Amino acid sequence: MITNLCFHGIGTIVHERESGESRYWVTEDCFLRILDEVRESPQVRLSFDDGNRSDVSIAFPALRERELRASFFALAGRLDDPASLSSSDLRDLRSAGMAIGSHGWTHVPWRGLGEEEARRELVDARTALAEASGGEIDDVALPLGRYDRQLLGRLARVGYRTVYTSDRLPARSSAWIQARYSVTANDTVESIRSVITHRPGVRDVRNLLASRVKRIR
Ligand SMILES: [Zn+2]
Asked: Which SUPFAM superfamilies would you find in this protein's record (predicted)?
């Protein structure tokens, strides 16, 4: 089993786009300590959602320094806005061996989308990000972690190679659905260490059941 860690923003958030967003921002110091903790752990994979500028201003150089790779899930609708990644950032990340994935267009939950919205979020966003980053987009991360059976069916039909959730569980390395742990402002290097070393507890059983329900509901 592997552990997928997901970051959203590093450093100080300038303004929240969504209420409660700052809960998912971690200090630079905490971020660097986590990277140092996981740098020798091949069973830990790293991803970054939302395409915030801290992905390139802080995370990218820190990853390169430690010869780590990560996946960056950007939003097509935020490309080139001042607080977000630009097309040339995506190209720089890609040419340094980072993976670029889609997080959709507008950062809305994908459950129960109408046909038109689904096309924009699942198909058009992918096309726009592929163009912007100069390469294929194979992977997708679900905005706000929400999903159900209908959405998984749509993602399968559109042909995504891997679907990243936020179900706070370990994952099988080759599974189509990859659960991830979102790192929050309350995390410390110690709390992340216990996630990685993984002693299954009550919370895991609860998360596993919740994840099963989402797949079949
Ligand atoms: Zn997000």
From this structure: Glycoside hydrolase/deacetylase
Whole-angstrom Cα distance, residue 113 to residue 173? 29
Q: How far is the CA of 147 from the centre of ligand 1 (A)?
A: 13
Report if pTM > 0.70: yes
Q: Find the 205 Cα to ligand 1 centroid distance in Å.
A: 25
What CA dihedral angle connects 112, 113, 114 and 117, to 10 degrees? 180
What is the tens place of the pLDDT at every residue in 88-129?
Answer: 999 999 999 999 999 999 999 999 999 999 999 999 999 999
Report phi then psi at 182, rounded to 5. -80, 125
Question: CA–CA separation, 216 vs 196, rounded Å?
Answer: 28
The residues with which 49 forms a beta bridge, in sequence order, are 73
Write out pLDDT tens, residues 18-35.
889 999 999 999 999 999
Amino acid identity for residue 80 in this structure: D
Domains of the chain are: 3-216 (3.20.20.370)
